[in-house]
Amino acid sequence: MSDFFDKLAKQGKELWESAVSTASELAESAKDTANDLIDQGKDKAEELKLKGQQKDLFTKLGEAVFNEAVNGEEFDKDALLDELKAVAASLVSLDEKRAAALAAKEEVKAAAEEVVDAVEDAVEEAKEEVEEAVDTVGEIKDSIEEAIESVEDKAEEATITCPVCGVVLPAGTKVCPVCGVELE
Ligand SMILES: [Zn+2]
User: What is the dihedral angle through the alpha carbons of 36, 41, 45, 48, rounded to the nearest 10 degrees?
Assistant: First the structure.
């Protein structure tokens, strides 16, 4: 029986520890979500800044092309194009960074779901084991009751009752020591 309670206590402890670790992981994941939102805000600001730069550069390029065609003013086409390429590359890497952050977030979410599933399974398993243990205790109780009955039966079989004075004597007694009657 002490094994049973030891096991139950151990399971309870494991379950508690696992629940605490899940709670702390969920708290961590909430913190990550808050950080994600801050990062998303920063990314959005960066995107707007880059798009503004891109628009200004396109305007500058358009004006330069126009002035060259109309007034014959030459301009450094390569320098403007390099600036535009740099802005476009920054926009692409921003998109890639966002995609990577999204994938990482999905991974964390999947991991958290796995932990929750594992705890649920553990609870279910512990419940089943407790039910089994309760059944076992019931079986042990039945066995003890059976054993007591059998001992009582054996005790009864091992005695005789004097038909004259009614005293209970060990089986095989030839003469009643109380009233002196011959038995059997
Ligand atoms: Zn007797």
Answer: 90
